[in-house]
Design goal:
Elements: H1 2-30, H2 33-56, H3 64-83
Helix pairs in contact: 1-2, 2-3
Amino acid sequence: MSYLLSIIAGWMLVFGLVLAIVAIVAYKRASSKRLLMVAGAFIVFLVKGIFLALYAFDIGPDVLLLSSALDLAILTLLAFSVLKP
């Protein structure tokens, strides 16, 4: 199970980093506050991947509560980026 968790955490880190970079570049080109919120959501996703990787390698604490809080932050940022006029 830890092997599978390590693979998933690695992919989360890669995708989070790539998507955060793409969103930041898009923000610099368009200067839209919505894109800034999306970039923030992807950065929080990257942080979640870091905590999950630390947990997978038995370095960090149990991340269930932290992961849920970060999921809430990601969903909030994405919701504001879509719903804000």
